[in-house]
Amino acid sequence: MNSGLKTNKILSRPMKVITKSLGKNRYYNQFKDDRFYNDSWIRAQKLPTKLLGPRYRRSRSSIELDITYRCNLKCFNCNRSCRQAPSTEQMNVEQIQMFIKESKEKNVNWETIRILGGEPTLHPDLLEILSLLIEYKKHSSAGVRIVLCTNGHGSKVANVLSKIPTDIVIENSMKTSDENGFSQFNKAPRDSILYKNADFSNGCFIIVGCGPGLTPYGYYCCAVAGSIDRVFGFDIGRKELPSADDDMVDQLRVFCELCGHYRRRSWTTRTTSEVMSPTWKEAYIKYKRVRPSLSLYSSK
Ligand code: SF4
Ligand code: SF4
Question: How confident is the prediction along the chain (300 residues), in pLDDT tens digits per residue?
């Protein structure tokens, strides 16, 4: 148990005693695990983090593969920047083979592998990628759920979806236009005085629900971070599958201060129009001038 968790336990004891004495212990437990509490501004600051430990830790059983950044929609506030910084970057078949090889060698028990992007049905090798993952499931990881996330928009996408093997679960968000209610991804916390004392190693709920991400440039604390890297060009994607004891805190510190999800309260911040803070405006201008060149996730 790390010191933060110990402190959390110690500090929560008096609170438990108080609430128990009021006969409200179950409310305390709901509160403790509630995103209302974990996503709160105060929980994201340095002192509470020092005392209580990180508010979120990444999943070890789920992963997202961003196989392409192509998309046939241009949604406002796309958290892969498909509208703001359109690109045809994509993972190749060899990179998927390497991911499978590493997963087997490291005995990772994936519960969920989600394939997305961009719009993954626009990847020219999608069916080959899926057949590799299905083979992996059959021979090495019977329990894994392989999920294809699509926007379901247009006849080209529908045509590919009609060919997807039944072993694959399809999550179809059925988008019809660019105006979807998304969180304000391009509102960098570091542009707000309110987050000057935040501890960005906290991450956000996405690292729990979705797990780390794999992009053409390696593994990231979340797939969103991978897409931030392709715009900013830090080039810090891990080139090996992170081990179970790796919380990827170094990456959280770099990416979360740029990511609007850090201040996420989706029910109050979702919007259908573009919102962008100065750091992002500047980053997209630079990206349009010169695209960063990142090193690839590849076999040595
Ligand atoms: S469909 Fe998804 S990936 Fe494509 S632009 Fe919209 S949010 Fe981004
Ligand atoms: S980069 Fe964004 S999505 Fe990823 S953990 Fe940080 S705040 Fe969450």
Answer: 444 444 444 444 444 443 344 344 444 444 445 666 677 888 899 999 999 999 899 999 999 999 999 999 999 999 999 999 999 999 999 999 999 999 999 999 899 999 999 999 999 999 999 999 999 999 999 999 999 999 999 999 999 999 999 999 999 999 988 878 788 999 999 999 999 999 999 999 999 999 999 999 999 999 999 999 999 999 999 999 999 999 999 999 999 999 999 986 644 577 888 999 999 999 999 999 999 999 999 865
Residue 264: other Cβ atoms inside 10 A: 19
- The CB of 225 under 6 Å from ligand 2? The reply is yes
> Which atom of ligand 2 is nearest to 220's Cα?
4
> Which tokens belong to 130?
């899926």
Residues 6+ positions from 287 with CB-CB distance below 8 Å? 85, 231
Torsion, Cα 178 181 186 191, to 10 degrees, reads 150
Cα–ligand 2 centroid distance for 187 (angstroms): 12
Ligand nearest to the CA of residue 173, numbered in listed order: 1
| Whether residue 63 has its Cβ less than 6 Å from ligand 2 | no
Nearest ligand 2 atom, CA 252: 6
CATH class of segment(s) 54-300: alpha beta
All structural domains of the chain with their residue ranges: 3-52, 54-300
